[in-house]
Design brief:
Keywords: Membrane, Transmembrane, Transmembrane helix. The structure is a single chain. The chain is mostly helical and 55 residues long. It has a domain of 31 residues. Helix content is 73%, strand content 0%. The chain is built from 3 helices and no strands. The protein is rod-shaped and about 65 Å long.
């Protein structure tokens, strides 16, 4: 594993880290997919389990 000081001395890596600091990446998309997935699972569980309700 290379030394961190050697990597930090590279200007390209410093610029890459500066760009990635401002860019949030796919966080919003992943969060949305997870929320929609959880809501979908809850809805599917409700839909399937309502048939087991005894009157």
């Amino acid at each position: 594993m290379p030394h961190l000081h050697a990597l930090a001395a590279q200007p390209g890596l410093t610029e890459l880290l500066a760009v990635s600091k401002d860019d949030q990446g796919p966080g919003v998309v992943i969060r949305t997919v997870l929320i929609v997935g959880v809501v979908g699972i809850v809805f599917l569980a409700w839909f399937l389990l309502r048939g087991y309700k005894k009157d």
